[in-house]
Amino acid sequence: MPRDDFGLSVYYMYASPREHHEWACTSFTCPSSATGGGYIPSPTSSLIFLSQSVFGIQAHRDPILHFSSLEASINCHPSHRRETDSMADSVEKPGAPSPSIAPVPSKKDASSTPSTTKPAAQTAVVGVKQFDRFVLRLNKLLSTPGGIASTLSTVNYALYILTHFSPRLSKLPVPLLSSLFTPSAKPTATLNPNGLPPVAALATLLAQTRTTLRLFGTLPLYAWLRSLLINGGGPKPGADPVLHRIAVLQASGYFIFQALENICVLVDHGIVSSGVVAALNRGERTTARVYKVAFRAWLGAILCDFLRLGREAQIEGRRREARRKLQADGHEIAINQDEEDAKVDRKWWSDLIIASAWLPMAAHFGSSNGIPGWNIGAMGVCGLVAGGERFVGLWKATA
């Protein structure tokens, strides 16, 4: 057993009470450990050993409570009462009950008194286990498809809300503040690092990280659009043609948005020549106008969600009406049909809330003058509502 403080603390954290006593005996108090070397037992250890030999008292894990049990047992022997009283007067035990203040506890009372070190050790072990479980769940979340994007999005928009209420934020210039939290913000390496609150600086960093990760977002969007346009661009057998057309419009809007945003990001960082933007922007080499077109494509894709939800509600209403007629005619329905309907309703309302949360943000960035009174706090609330439910679902799946 290592004798340094760190080893001792780790040992006490994981060892059982029996191992505590055995290690303490072999290291400090038990006279049997003195046979290997010149160990001189203390009066307390000699008394404990004497009680174990003569009266058969088992050592308690708490030395103070053990001494109390020992004293109570020796007092029961008339021949040893005088020696015990003199020893109790000469040996001072910190924390031990005084005979003049309180009666000596019996062995049953002493054994029922909880140890003061045990709750602290248990709390430490529980804390370590909870932290370990949190790290493992977070690692599992980040390894799932979309886990990194969902986590960064949730944390980013939560930081927007905190930044909005930061007392140092009001001291920043309005043009600088408005340029930090827009998707078209350029790298902030030239900014004074002391000019931003830490929360705002972290929010800006996460926003740029998410924009960089979206450089690869055109690949799954291309695959989605291709799957909708294959086989002549028509719907699959049994699929609703209206929903298929809405899906094609939405996939096209998302693909245009992501492609234009990627071009603007690469141009702003000097990776792609500004001539590419000039070719798309009637000779103008700045990216502001291209960003505006990209946001409008994003707005159109979000509006397609409302069209899809309206069509799905119409189809589901017809299906349930037909089922009610069959039930009225005496036909049986599935046993868990009510539960399935409840799941469909929850998903429909969840999609409606998400689309409603993204709509004002897309409308603000897609319009020429923006929404009056729009700020990063409102953007943080909208983004947290839109992406928070998905993050909660992914987090629950890691349990």
From TrEMBL:
Any one of the GO BP annotations: peroxisome fission
Location(s), subcellular: Peroxisome membrane
Record keywords: Membrane, Peroxisome, Peroxisome biogenesis
Region (Disordered): 79-122
Organism superkingdom: Eukaryota
Signal peptide: none
Record's keyword annotation contains Aminoacyl-tRNA synthetase: no
First-listed, main subcellular location of the protein, grouped into a coarse class: membrane
Protein name: Peroxin 11C
Organism: Periconia digitata
